[in-house]
Structures are given as structure tokens and as C-alpha cells.
Amino acid sequence: MSVNKKVLLLELPGRQAMPGLAEALQQAGAEVMRMGLEDCNTVLDALEQGWMPVVLKPPVDA
């Protein structure tokens, strides 16, 4: 894993996009924070603190 081990999982409204992703990242040594995009100030604060953002969208049903 890279030097930045702080991963911010940003989830869009709806069902969980990737079940188990947070746990897998934690097992690989990352610190993981999950949040929605509703509170822009909290997201901006996390980015300022060095969290790497990853936006998760629910998969499109086939």
C-alpha cells in the first residue's frame, strides 16, 4: 500500500456500493473513514487532513 494510508470512502445515497471494501483496506493496513457527501464541510476537512477520497457508486443492475 502507498504512503497515504488514510482512505475516505464517500458513498452516494442508496445501497452499499462495495460490501467488504472497508474491511479489506483495513486488513491491508489502511485507516478507513466512511461518509456521505451530504456534509461538504466535513468532507473538505478530511481532505485537508490528508485523507484520500474514493467515491463509491452502487453498481448498475444488469
Description:
Helix 1 (21-27) links the parallel strand 1 and strand 2 (31-36). This protein has 2 helices and 3 strands, in the order E-H-E-H-E. Helices cover 26% and strands 27% of the residues. It has 62 residues and is α/β, with parallel strands linked by helices. It has a 3-stranded parallel beta sheet, with helices on both faces.
User: Which shape, going by the Cα principal axes?
Assistant: flat
The tally of helices reads: 2
**Residues in helix, %:** 25-40%
Distance between the termini: 32 Å
Counted beta strands: 3
The largest sheet is: 3 strands, parallel
Unreliable segments (pLDDT under 50, ≥5 consecutive)? none
Q: Strand percentage, roughly?
A: 25-35%
Q: How confident overall, as mean pLDDT?
A: 86
What would you call the structural class?
A: alpha/beta
Pattern of helices and strands: EHEHE
Provide the spatial order of strands within the biggest beta sheet.
2-1-3
Specify Rg, calculated over alpha carbons: 12 Å
